[in-house]
Amino acid sequence: MEDWTARETNGWRPGELPPGWPATEDSDLSPADSLEQAQHSDGSQSEMTDGPQTRYRVRGGNQLHGTVFVQGAKNAALKMIAASLLAEKGRTVLRNVPVIEDVRRAVELAQAVGAVVKFHEAERTLVVDASELTSSVLPAEIARRFRASVLFVPALLHRLGEATIEGIGGCNLGSRNLDFHYRGFARLGARVDEQEDRIHITAGHMRGAHLYLDTPSHTGTENLIMAASLAPGTTVIDNCALEPEVLDVIAFLSKMGARISGGGTGFVTVQGVGELTAVEHTVMADRIDAAVFAMAAATAGGEVTLVGASLDDFGVVRWKLEQMGVEFATHGAVLQVRRDRQLRPINVITSPFPGFATDLQSPIMAVSCLAEGTSYIRETIFDGRYMLVGELNKMGAKVEIDGSAVLVHGPSALRGADVIAHDLRTGIALVLAGLAAEGETVISPGYLIDRGHASVASRLATLGADVTAEISD
Ligand code: EPU
């Protein structure tokens, strides 16, 4: 008889993982840290950069007019970079890869384990040759600042038989656990061994299993699909995420030869295959980036054309912006956004797709400051995502935390101030607020914005905004 208890945990007991496993404060990085040697436990070394320390300067008051190009989706590209390491032969070509700091970190991580990766930034094209992986260690110097590091575990397990994560990181979003990932690896037959300063996972005899996610984790779904793709037998993942990026990752893996069905239904089935091959894929447009530019038009007023944006991918965000008085017109894959009237207040409760995206909760809070009346915003996905409140109030907004929700009393005459980007989405929301503020808003650290949005200053400037990015001291 099968030892199902051992199979369930394989040495790892749920709850043993440190809750919120060393949270990262990317903003702690100093310029002196900008080039470090990451020492692996096997003695080899890899270089890690943090990217330039920048700040954004926004002088508000200009309406926006013109055309902007939506970047490729961060939250699809990162998964695809990791997935490309599943291919033992050939070169993967990823197109429309956003030129952002998180992609550069993912490239460095792939290089740290031996993949040959070239990011042709001008062409937004990434070429990955993973035919020789040389290290199973995801070094702390990179991994603890970059939460998506855990996405490299499936490739290391299948290619090298083991993976060690020396740390794990991400945005500063309160407690964000990875237990679904580790529990899923264990259910698939891996042995997950938590040590003091690292997690060591050995593949053992991985095989298909029935997996259930307590909540439809976006990255958890993608990671377990990757792990199951090369595990013999059938894996069923119950309560999967429905985000469009998950479907794009499934499309990429399917091109590679994976057998995956049920994407977008919440119930995915994966039939393990013997090998995956290197392919070419164009990353979908970034729905968060598109919605941020739509919200830029909402805050500044005017009319902008978004090349590559899909309203279908906005989910509830579309209806909420329309309720506020923002107008959309779709022309195939080109979206026009206009705001020429007083904004109305809004009620927003974040939820998994197609609900209101948590990544747009901060930006909509900034937009709400301009609406006539009181808006209600409640975050349900991540705690610690109300750091924007204090920053908006520095700019003259009237925002209050009311229990688990936020009330925004508008309209406010925003004025420029020195404000702090606590994470990527807080940072871009402050850029939006700055567009509508009188005077100059200085947002730092800009690095956090650069983690997820490409060429923010130049794209907004193309629309007529007065935004500059500068290297900070
Ligand atoms: N959760 C667990 N255990 C897990 C996984 C998740 O408890 O093992 C909880 C989290 O703590 C959180 C909730 O489930 O409360 C949802 O987390 P999820 O796993 O869905 O988030 P994620 O996959 O880690 C991705 C995006 C985030 C985005 C969320 C929600 C990537 C690399 N990141 O994170 O993007 O906010 O989905 O859509 O895909 C961003 O782009 O700024 C960003 C943070």
What are the key terms here?
26 strands, about 25% strand, alpha+beta, about 475 residues, binds uridine-diphosphate-2(N-acetylglucosaminyl) butyric acid
Descriptive overview:
- By secondary structure, this protein is α+β, with helices and mostly antiparallel strands.
- Helix content is 29%, strand content 26%.
- Strands 24-25-3-26 form a four-stranded mixed beta sheet.
- Helix 2 packs parallel to helix 3, helix 6 (179-187) packs parallel to helix 7 and helix 9 runs parallel beside helix 13.
What Rg do the Cα atoms give? 22 Å
Specify the biggest β-sheet. 4 strands, mixed
Bound molecules: uridine-diphosphate-2(N-acetylglucosaminyl) butyric acid
Overall, the morphology is: globular
Backbone structural class: alpha+beta
Strand content: 25-35%
Instruction: Note poorly predicted spans.
Output: 1-48, 169-175
Strand elements, count = 26
Task: Give the rounded overall mean pLDDT.
Answer: 88
Percent helix, as a range, is 25-40%
Briefly, what is this?
The protein is of the alpha+beta class and 473 residues long.
